[in-house]
Amino acid sequence: MKVRSRIYGLLLHILLALLGVTFLMPLAWVLSTSLKLPGEVFITPIEWLPSSPRWQNYAEVFTRLPFARFFLNSFIVTALGTAGAVVSSTTVAYGLSRIKWPGRQIVFGLMLATLMLPSIVTLIPVFIIFTMINWVGTFYPLWVPAWLGISFYIFLMRQFMATLPIELDEAAKMDGAGNFRILWQVIAPLCGPGIASVTIFAFLQHYNDFLGPLIYLSENEMFTLPLGLLWFQGRFGNLWHLVMAASMVTILPIIAVFFLAQKHFIQGIQFSGLAGR
């Protein structure tokens, strides 16, 4: 049995390694192309390691278009949207999981029902609302909705909080603590993995958002990175080495966040009940 289990484990690791290499090949091609000369991009067979890497391609990206400004815009939208998602989801999840009030389960069920509604269905009504309050052409439509609650993040935090013993709340109430103090001083510190998961999800959602900036932003200096990258490709699409360098610059923050937070992300998924519970 031990030999069979070891063989099974070895085959599983080989399969996972092959899948990992397969998924990393596009990223490796982007990195390789970003360091090449224009005439070396489409050479066959592919030269994965350029003979003389051109690191100046990355500097040239920032001189062709205001990528530093695009980074700043994405940072503003992502930071505000992520903070709003964490605060709103934690607060609403506390009300749905720790406080007993009439109709709580009905409200929770209606909230889950909104997960079945495609976002494209509400696109036009939401656009009309933002037009009526003169928010089109600003960053507000990109981050303010996160402060009003996002169903998936609320569900994630609610599932996590439901695993904590209710005796914590009762002990805090005996000491004279109110609901807000219980939430932020007792419950929230214990929800680290769940909050980390919501933070990662919200960061990726706002950082990678393309449709929102495309609809609501019209001035070039307000573009976020996904929209700025499309603009860059439209102007310099024949210079693939620069397009790939710009793409690599754009995805570097995502790679950094993944490696820094992957442990918390996996813990959050396991503890919140999304891992097969």
Order of helices and strands: HHHHHHHHHHHHH
Low-confidence segments, given as residue ranges, are 273-277
Helix content: over 70%
Kindly state the number of beta strands: 0
Number of alpha- plus pi-helical segments: 13
Q: C-alpha Rg, in Å?
A: 23 Å
What can you tell me about this protein's structure?
The structure is a single chain. This protein has 277 residues and is an all-alpha fold. The chain has one domain: MetI-like (MetI-like fold, Orthogonal Bundle), CATH 1.10.3720. It is 70% helix and 0% strand. The chain has helices at 2-33, 56-64, 67-97, 104-113, 123-132, 140-143, 151-161, 167-174, 179-190, 192-208, 211-216, 225-236, 240-272. α1 (2-33) packs antiparallel against α13 (240-272), α7 packs parallel to α13 and α10 packs antiparallel against α13 (240-272). Mean pLDDT is 86; it is low at 273-277.
List keywords for this structure.
277 residues; 70% helix; 13 helices; mainly alpha; MetI-like fold; disordered C terminus
